[in-house]
Amino acid sequence: MDTDTLIRAAGAVVWRGASDDPEIAVIHRPRRDDWSLPKGKLLPGEHMIAGALREVAEETGLGIVLGRRLPTIHYLKDGRPKRVDYWTARAVAQVAELPSDEVDGLEWLPLDQARARMSYEVDAGMLASLLDAPLETTPLVLVRHASAGEREEWTGDDDLRPIDKEGEEQSRCLAEVLYGYRPATLLSSPSKRCVQTLVPYAARELLRIGTDHLLTETDYDAPATLALTSKLVDAGEPALVCSHGKVLPELIEGLLGQRSGPHLDDTHLGKGGLAVLHHTDGRIVAAERYRT
To answer: Angle at which helices 165-179 and 48-60 pack, to 10 degrees?
Structure first.
């Protein structure tokens, strides 16, 4: 596929009510006279998660919290390949009533009725499999620190090495992405580059960044660090861990193995990258990786 012509879009299946019998938000677009799920094209340079949050807000006026990722849809649009990334998303607030020339109606429908209302089979098919995995989940987000120059070029204490200009941009992007999951507990390696990576999000949400030496490269201990992180899963609240490239792959594999999680082909995270482990009742039911 020629990525130079690829149209990128993002959206969500937004739900409310009981997770085993949800109501689904469906929108009507007058220009096409169709019923679909909220979605839209990404802005230049926009992260797909940030784009999904923005598009849902613009088309529905809803504030949402993301759940697990849904299958990506590919099709041709005016002869060009188009990719649409979707997530489940729980509606947490109606923040605005937005009149629009693109959307003139929003209805909350039971799942079967929402599926029947869809104008396109790809949307209906996605709704048909929506409850194949738990709909209401809690995220544990694992973040690798943002870009911080080269270790070999830093002459001081490596724990004091700061993020660089690229890392600052990654941390700002990360703040937008993390808002989709709303982690309220932040736990980081005390290394400066790890803490700095979380500062934009923590400042935005007025959250304290906790630290623990078990998340550093020097004090990492596989059983102890796994136990530390597992407590966040057991707490059952959205949480985040920020650590290092030498720590996170084994930690992610340990969590997936301990919590009967799905397999990830690659647990390596690039600088500023993140993995999201979605769990319910202590069991990991979905796992995803993203770049920033």
So the answer is: 40
The position carrying tokens 């697990």 is 68
- Give dist(CA 246, CA 164) in Å, integer: 19
Q: What is the pLDDT of residue 1?
A: 46
198 in Cβ contact with 179 (< 8 Å) = no
Q: Which of 250, 236, 263, 49 is nearest to 142 (CA)?
A: 250
- pLDDT score, position 256: 97
Radius of gyration of the chain (CA): 20
The low-confidence residues of the chain, meaning pLDDT below 50, are: 1
Structure-token match 């409310």, residue found: 16
**Spatial separation of the C-alpha atoms in residues 10 and 273, rounded to whole Å:** 19
Do 107 and 16 contact (CB within 8 A), yes or no? no
The pLDDT tens digits for 224-267 are: 999 999 999 999 999 999 999 999 999 999 999 999 988 898 99
Question: For the chain, how are helix, strand and coil distributed in percent, rounded to 5?
Answer: 30, 35, 35
The DSSP secondary-structure symbol of 101 reads S
pTM of the predicted model as reported, rounded to 2 decimal places: 0.94
pLDDT digits (tens, 9 = 90+) for 18-37: 999 999 999 999 988 999 99
Helix, strand or coil, per DSSP, at residue 8: strand
Q: What is the pLDDT of residue 4?
A: 62
Contact status, residue 89 vs residue 78, Cβ threshold 8 Å: no
Number of Cβ within a 10 Å radius of residue 167: 21
Cα separations in angstroms, 182 against 33, 177, 242? 35, 9, 15
In the block, tokens 């009507």 appear at: 28
Residue 263, judged by CB atoms within 10 A of its CB (0-12, 13-18, 19+), counts as: exposed
